[in-house]
Amino acid sequence: MTAPKRLTDLKRNAIIQAAISEFRTSGFDITSMDKIAATAGVSKRTVYNHFPSKEELFAEILHKLWASISAQAEVAYRHDQPLRGQLEALLRAKLQLLADDNFLDLARVAIAAAIHSPERAQDMVARLGEREEGLTLWIRGALADGRLKPLDPEFAAQQMHGLLKSFAFWPQITLGQPPLTADLQTRVIESALDMFLCHYQA
């Protein structure tokens, strides 16, 4: 890698870190690209060279956060492994993300920003939805292998995400409750697995 490339990467990372700090402190609407540039120690032109808009920058932050956590436990469907064990690994990775303080803080920022702009909300939800595709792909694999009853993979995946988020996302976002303890995480996962497999396993 050349020195200019390394410098570009360093500036990009500085912009992302500055944006995380500003979004968490001030919220989406108040945070300006000027402020992000000042905090990052770069020019506003440099910020716009990397990110054409504040929305693009915010989406990149959420994507990077998701990828850094979920990539550690990416689970592809395996026809030779029990369904329950595979699903459990996927759900534990999801709960790991939902327990991350940075993710929760940025999710609060995103929700607050979305309330004031339905168009922005649709865009952010669509972008985040792309990062929940892993479970949908796994369900499609199990369905094609004949191990699940006929179902809509996207609908079933959304059901599963809803089971987790009702305990490990919305109470923390809206009521300020603490992240789930390890024991409660296990209880939530086991219950979700029981319901999902009881209803859908062939």
UniProtKB/TrEMBL annotation:
DNA-binding region, residue range(s): 32-51
Domain HTH tetR-type: 9-69
Pfam families, A to Z: TetR_C_7, TetR_N
Bilayer-spanning residue ranges: none
Entry annotated with the keyword Calcium: no
Keywords: DNA-binding, Transcription, Transcription regulation
InterPro entries: DNA-bd_HTH_TetR-type_CS (IPR023772), Homeodomain-like_sf (IPR009057), HTH-type_TetR-like_transc_reg (IPR050109), HTH_TetR (IPR001647), Tet_transcr_reg_TetR-rel_C_sf (IPR036271), TetR_C_Proteobacteria (IPR039536)
UniProt keyword annotation of DNA-binding present: yes
GO molecular function: DNA-binding transcription factor activity; transcription cis-regulatory region binding
Protein name according to UniProt: Transcriptional regulator, TetR family
Species: Pseudomonas saponiphila
